[in-house]
Design a protein that fits this description.
homodimer, mainly alpha, Arc Repressor Mutant, subunit A, Tetracycline Repressor, domain 2, 2 domains, 10 helices
């Protein structure tokens, strides 16, 4: 996979303690993004974090636990951003614009994490997979509720609410695939552009 | 990675001859989708195709050549579909709708191939990478030309033509990530929904 640059900062992982566990998560994101989950060993990850395999084992018993931790933090953060937008007040258009802007910005800034989270979903164990799918359902429900609010108030005209919700989330998530920090658009600029495009998708004729 | 089902048929690879080379390509797509490029060996691929590593070597000298063949066929097919839509006549809206419908349908039907092509772009050798990037630039240019036609004729109202082109392609490509053949929408239905959403993105107020 094409990893142009590592994440600009480690804000996404600031809640993970102790320090050693956080360093391991950051190393795992980089390793999974570069070589894929299945081609990465816990030894590779420990090495990148400047630790021994035994030291890794203190914090994570398996490689899957690391992937689950990454996926869980990423999905919880996404859900929190969408909830914040849904509760931000203003018209449905204001809230939809805010949701798209912050969701896009996150997927641009944390594009390496976003790729790992999206591409390696199938490598999670069954219980972890179920838990992550539930977080995704909740994010979808929050986005859908904003669109439904706009349809109810007459601000939006949408033929297929669940299909449009899916498309809006998909459009935002795919930013993680193509975003290039050396490219000509900043995360904020893409967020603005996408908020406009999504509001066009739902506006009445 | 989550591979719900193998491709419904092998139409995408019908131009690859002889038979043995085609079988190897199909086996490689499945193996790369399941385990990632870096975790797959040419021995795995030969085994899946019911062939010996020596027999594989007659057709493909390296694993990267297989990835290149997959990526090349996929990108050429995408470009051909978009060109066909651009030359299909009718209004710019007709052509944009046709482009989105056929591009979406391809990414839904060949979602396993689509994932491999998109996720493993960074694993191509430098020359092959340059060639594939050029094919992507051409696809982008064809989609942009349809949107520009509509802006010129006054049928479309678009603030940022290149940004909108990028968003439209991204929306269609990401279908390969989330499409599930057991899900409730068919490739045709998603194509219809997306054509409507994209035409909404570009319509004048």
């Amino acid at each position: 996979m094409d990893v142009e640059a590592t994440e600009p900062n480690t804000e996404a992982w600031s809640d993970i303690t102790p320090d050693a566990a956080r360093r391991l998560v950051i190393a795992a994101v980089e390793a999974f993004a570069e070589r894929g989950y299945h081609a990465t060993t816990t030894r590779d990850i420990a090495g990148r974090a400047g630790m021994s395999p035994a030291a890794l084992y203190i914090h994570y018993k398996t490689k899957e636990q690391l992937l689950y931790q990454i996926s869980s933090v990423g999905h919880q953060r996404s859900l929190a951003l969408l909830r914040q937008a849904a509760e931000s007040g203003g018209t449905p258009a204001d809230r939809l614009g805010t949701a798209v802007r912050s969701f896009v910005r996150w997927h641009a800034e944390y594009h390496t994490t976003g790729r790992v989270v999206q591409y390696e979903l199938g490598a999670l164990g069954p219980e972890h997979h179920t838990e992550i799918v539930e977080l995704r359902r909740r994010s979808e429900a929050v986005m859908r509720s904003i669109i439904e609010d706009g349809v109810r108030s007459g601000d939006f005209d949408v033929l297929d609410v669940s299909g449009t919700t899916l498309a809006v989330l998909s459009l935002c998530i795919d930013v993680a695939r193509w975003f290039n920090p050396a490219g000509r658009r900043t995360p904020d600029e893409i967020g603005e552009l996408y908020a406009d495009l999504v509001l066009r998708m739902v506006r009445p004729v």
